[in-house]
Amino acid sequence: MTMGDARIRVLVVDDDLAVRQALSRTLEKIGYDVVVAEDGQEGLDRLRQGGIHIVLADLKMPKLSGNELLKAAKAIAPDVEVIVITGHGTVEDAVEAMKEGAYDFITKPFKRVQLEKTIRKAAEKQALVLENRVLQARVDELQGAGQIIGTSPAILRTLELVNQVAPSTATVLIQGESGTGKELIANAVHHGSPRRARPFIKVNCAALPETLLESELFGYERGAFTGAVARREGRFELADGGTLFMDEIGDLSLATQAKLLRVLQEGEFERLGGTRTLKVDVRLVAATHADLATLVREKGFREDLFYRLNVITIQIPPLRERREDIPLLAQHFLGRYAVKNAKTITGFTDEALDLLQSYAWPGNVRELENVIERAVVLTRGSMISPADLPETLAGADQAARHLVISVGTPLEEVEDRLIEETLRYARGDKTLAAKLLGIATRTIYRRMKGEPQPPGAG
Ligand SMILES: Nc1ncnc2c1ncn2[C@@H]1O[C@H](COP(=O)(O)OP(=O)(O)OP(=O)(O)O)[C@@H](O)[C@H]1O
Ligand SMILES: [Mg+2]
User: Fold this and answer.
1) CATH number of 2-137: 3.40.50.2300, 3.30.43.10, 3.10.180.10, 2.60.40.1180?
2) What sign results for the dihedral spanned by CA atoms 214, 216, 217, 219?
3) Any residues with Cβ below 6 Å from ligand 1, and which?
4) Helical ranges in 193-323 per DSSP H
5) Checking CA distances to 330, which of 39, 100, 126, 133 falls within 20 to 30 Å?
6) pTM
7) Which CATH number applies to 153-317: 3.40.50.2000, 3.40.50.720, 3.40.50.300, 1.10.246.130?
8) Residue 3 has what pLDDT?
9) Among residues 109, 111, 130, 107, which one has the least CA distance to residue 54?
10) Separation of CA 362 and ligand 1 centre (Å)
């Protein structure tokens, strides 16, 4: 059976040699590629290498049961269809497996027609899933999703660093304000590495309380705590061979920091409630909006862990420090959301672009993206105009044109603030600011250096 160019590859996992052989022969005769594994663990290892479309797994196996394999498969390769094989009269197990996301089940001893029919249906579904993937990839390409937009020196330097460090296994720490693109960069690091075909697993350290986070990271054994009814793999295990992205790492408790340090140092850990030491090969990429160095000084973050993480730091500058990227990003998001909303919008009026470029963007690129999406939805014209933008943007511009000064403010301070605000209004253009203020440009340079001025100078 083929799917476009690729043949459907079935992974048969059964501890019984006779069953494996019988299944392989039947499936090969129908025209599938067949790979076999003797137990769940081996099956999982094979699955991690990729290229499997359908898993046919016995439910009762040593080491890792079919059900555990099913769960792990859904986490590592969610698109793979799993069909479970059950013994005669064990319907409950089959139902359980279906609940966990199995595609179907077949009962032993199976009839060839039954097997053929079930696998064919799963293969057809796989073909659709893969077709969708290809289409989605094409849409992404057209819309530039995952693409890092920007031509400012600051962003180009960032990208250069990404290209340089991605192929290594070095731990990367990404720092930047919220919405600056930390996750996008983390993705780029993974996709630029030889691990790109292996899992990219994310965990947000700020989203979970300490104990839950530890069980997410390291997994747990059955009975490790109330509610741990079955063993579960942690994110470190799932990321084996790939990259683990730990977001908001500044929020880790000191206790979890200690455990993480051990994994980084020795590459090993135990599941919660477990005694077996597990070894993994994981590349860590961490991100935080907090300043970790300051946290270290304030004793909220372990210094040794900081140095482990900080092998390479990628600092993403806030959007207001790379305003030249704003028009590009705005146009990029405009294109994406116009397509999504089936609207024909060609661009921005000059006034709208001015507003976008002079706003401070405390929420950075994410905020810009939201503003553009909203504008695309709201606008009735073919150009985005100031009326389509939130009032905060115009308000910011208004505020930039007015100063509120209390009676009795020292004249020198008034002058300083006036120069400062005029400069900001002129977007740093000193000649323009000087012209607006009716003073010489060199006076602005002098004042910026903080030299004391004789009264009335300039
Ligand atoms: N340079 C860029 N080019 C294109 N899109 C970008 C760029 N930077 C950020 N984005 C987009 O902005 C949004 C926010 O980016 P991302 O989630 O990576 O930021 P973050 O720093 O992780 O934010 P937070 O701190 O809020 O989690 C995403 O939709 C991302 O695709
Ligand atoms: Mg993020």
Assistant:
1) 3.40.50.2300
2) positive
3) 148-150, 176, 178-184, 289, 329, 365-366, 369
4) 210-218, 235-238, 254-266, 292-297, 303-309
5) 133
6) 0.61
7) 3.40.50.300
8) 44
9) 130
10) 13
